[in-house]
Design goal:
single chain, about 400 residues, mainly alpha, flat
């Protein structure tokens, strides 16, 4: 090995590539980018404000020193637990520091001005959040521990929001007068997302079994469901308005249970139809992927086809089924946002209201919880799939 190769090998063993990149992005964002934006009201564009202008000098210096120390930790090949703590500590510190910016930038009698995060803040926050996520992967936590870690992070974020430390930020000012409506729309979003996936499972599991046992049925069934997937979501919502409206007008029992041309009913049906393809295809492919030796051994031991399905195929196929369900649920949570266009409610209500009013903070009031819900569902089902595999 030459001296240059030895030096390169030593350097690569000292520094962590992902951590080095994240540290560089974070420090560059804090040093060169705007930490906050100052808007005269909720609609007009904001002016960028640097870290040392947005915060009091002691707070700004503390944030920069903490970020620099954490950057050194993550840039080097340090233990995964230390990297996790560094990433979470800086992410929390950045949020708390941003919460102090309004008191430093805005006069107490100014009720219209809005303070929000700048792109420098987002670069640093997301960089250290990425480091924390990578550290969790490196720790190779068991499924239950991963779910517990997710619960702790969500509990910490909830406690931070409940403490009032962020109440003066623009996003929370949009939330304050809409708190009751926000939680009502949250319940609607959960109903649309999880309810439609539950309905898709109820219909899709038998269809998937039929595809598995009847190749002649599989082609037409998957072809029909694939054709539904090609229809844009807004178009499918619109196509369902007329037939469901006719049912509501001509069948009193349908109207009595809440079926109508607009609202939750067409959104629920459309989301269920969209979720059917990944469920049916996931069931069929997961069952087909079970080891043939295990199935043949089950049959040789005297098991019937039904017993082999329930006791051998289904347990072996469970990890792939849960992985397919994870994709389905995350997709449905996102699509449920579009359902607000036909009066179904959900977090999309705030997204489209904000777009109509050109109020980006109101858009974020709907977008941020949607992303958080999808991320939490993905982590939980990924842990469930790994637990099933074990």
């Amino acid at each position: 090995m030459t001296a240059i190769e030895a030096s390169a090998a030593a350097g690569s063993s000292t520094f962590d590539r992902l951590g080095l990149l994240a540290a560089g992005v974070a420090i560059s964002g804090l040093a060169l980018g705007p930490f906050a934006t100052l808007k005269p009201n909720r609609i007009l564009d904001g002016a960028p404000v640097s870290l040392f202008a947005a915060l009091s000098p002691p707070v700004a210096a503390a944030v920069m020193l903490l970020a620099a120390a954490a950057a050194i930790v993550v840039a080097l090949r340090t233990p995964a637990l230390l990297r996790l703590l560094a990433g979470l500590a800086v992410a929390a510190a950045l949020l708390i520091a941003l919460g102090t910016a309004p008191s430093h930038l805005v006069a107490r009698d100014d009720m219209l001005a809005r303070i929000g995060p700048g792109w420098g803040f987002w670069l640093a926050f997301l960089a250290f959040a990425l480091v924390a996520s990578d550290a969790i992967v490196r720790l190779r936590l068991r499924p239950l521990m991963r779910v517990a870690a997710l619960a702790l992070v969500l509990a910490g974020a909830g406690a931070l929001f409940a403490s009032g430390a962020l109440d003066d930020l623009s996003l929370l000012k949009e939330y304050a007068p809409r708190a009751q409506a926000f939680w009502s729309e949250a319940r609607t979003h959960l109903l649309l997302s999880f309810g439609s996936v539950a309905a898709a499972l109820t219909l899709g599991v038998p269809l998937g079994l039929a595809c598995h046992f009847s190749p002649r049925f599989e082609g037409p069934a998957l072809g029909f469901l694939t054709a539904i997937q090609t229809i844009p979501s807004i178009a499918l919502f619109a196509l369902l308005i007329a037939p469901l409206g006719w049912l509501a007008a001509n069948l009193p029992s349908a109207s009595a249970v809440g079926i109508s041309g607009v609202g939750i009913a067409p959104a629920f049906v459309a989301l269920t139809l969209y979720a059917l393809l990944p469920v049916v295809a996931g069931v069929a492919s997961a069952l087909a992927s079970t080891p043939r030796d295990a199935v043949e051994a089950a049959r040789a031991s005297g098991m019937t086809e039904r017993q082999a399905l329930l006791l051998v195929k289904a347990p072996l196929a469970a990890p792939r089924l849960l992985a397919s369900l994870r994709v389905t649920l995350v997709q449905t949570i996102g699509l449920a946002t579009v359902a607000a266009l036909i009066g179904a409610g959900g977090f999309g209500t705030f997204v489209f209201q904000g777009m109509g009013q050109t109020a980006i903070d109101l858009v974020l009031l709907g977008a941020v919880p949607t992303v958080a819900l999808a991320f939490a569902a993905s982590v939980a089902l990924d842990a469930a799939a790994e637990a099933a595999a074990r």
